[in-house]
Write a structure and sequence with these properties.
It is a single chain. This protein is of the alpha+beta class. It is about 30% helix and about 25% strand. It contains three helices and six strands; from the N terminus they run βββαββαβα. Strands 1, 2, 3, 4, 5 and 6 form a six-stranded mixed β-sheet that branches. A hairpin with a 2-residue loop joins strand 4 and strand 5 (about 45-50). The longest helix is centred in the N-terminal third of the chain and has 11 residues, at about 25-35. This is DUF4031 domain-containing protein. It comes from Winogradskya humida. InterPro entries: DUF4031.
Length: about 90
């Protein structure tokens, strides 16, 4: 299932949402492609999408959930990749 949270994260003069899948990264990338979200918006386990794309994401079938629910669903699916556990590139 594709999930999106409320746009509450400020950056570059806009508000941003997180777009995730609780099934697979493949499902997430496929949905992001249909949404028109650039791959550079992918950050470890989610896409950052601007507030302006949230209505389109919902119309394409994403489910609006809380930020806490996104984190919980990613952890439950084994898809959470937090920064502090990311593999170091310089090893």
């Amino acid at each position: 299932m594709i999930l999106v949270d409320e746009p509450r994260w400020p950056g570059r003069g806009r508000l941003w949402s997180h777009l995730v899948s609780d099934v697979s990264y493949e499902e997430l990338h496929d949905f992001a492609d249909r949404l028109g979200a650039p791959r550079r918006g992918f950050d470890r386990d989610h896409y950052d999408i601007p507030e302006s794309l949230v209505p389109t994401a919902l119309s394409l079938g994403a489910t609006l959930v809380s930020s806490r629910d996104i984190s919980a669903r990613l952890r439950a699916a084994g898809l959470r990749r937090p920064k502090h556990l990311a593999l170091r590139q310089d090893l």
